[in-house]
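@channel sequence for tomorrow's demo:
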Amino acid sequence: MPKPARSVMVASAIAGALALGPAGSPAAHATPAPLDYVALGDSYSAGSGVLPVDPTNLLCLRSTANYPHVIASRTNARLKDVTCGAAQTKHFAEAQYPGVAPQADALTADTDLVTLTIGGNDDNTFINAIMACGSAGILSGGKGSPCKDRNGTSFDDRIEANTYPALKNALRSLRAKAPDARIAVLGYPWITPATAEPSCFAKLPIASGDVPYVRGIQAHLNAVVQRAAEETGATYVDFSEVSEGHDACKPAGTRWIEPLLFGHSVVPVHPNALGERRMAERTLTVLGLG
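structure tokens (generated this afternoon):
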């Protein structure tokens, strides 16, 4: 082989090796593109009651310390947070307030990650259960199970008949808008302990016999959220074990959920800053991120 030709080949080989780098791959030292992350959902997603409040939309009472912001900060994701307090699944497709676009409008074909907590406000079922059982507990002095005696399976029936199909349809619509995204659907951390704690009645005035009743309603709600997620190809983030012992009856610094009375938030029966961080951490673990 003539010398000039050989020199060209050697030079080309050296240039190629330098381009590949030590790992032998052009992308060995490339920085991955940040995730395009869209956060949807209700007040548990928005972190309603947790300071500081996002000043760009005061109607939604959205916190800049909510679990989407924690996830984004730990993954360097590009976050678009359209969470909104009091949102129902229907608000993925329709405006919740004038000037507030449907939440699903934030999704595109380029969306990489979607998180949401939703379903608790549908048909006002769960908030009605909390309020009904709290009122009944006060009137009964904390004795018996007046809420269960009056309402029976009505809350569970509405969750099954209304919330479950609404969740499933909403998640299907999200998948259609963001076909390549990982969709994580978070359950709701425990609000009540498994059984009544006498010291808790002043903070969460639910009669002793109704504490497991309310817990059962929440367990049913989480079960239909999980079912809808799994049936639509989403990832369910389960808090049934990790939030045990962190309910609204526990002292500040331990509880993830603020109580109905004498709590430290203007939005009772919602996650505090610790709860939002723990929700983020559990989600990161389940998704293998961060």
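heads up for whoever presents: The chain has one domain: 36-287.
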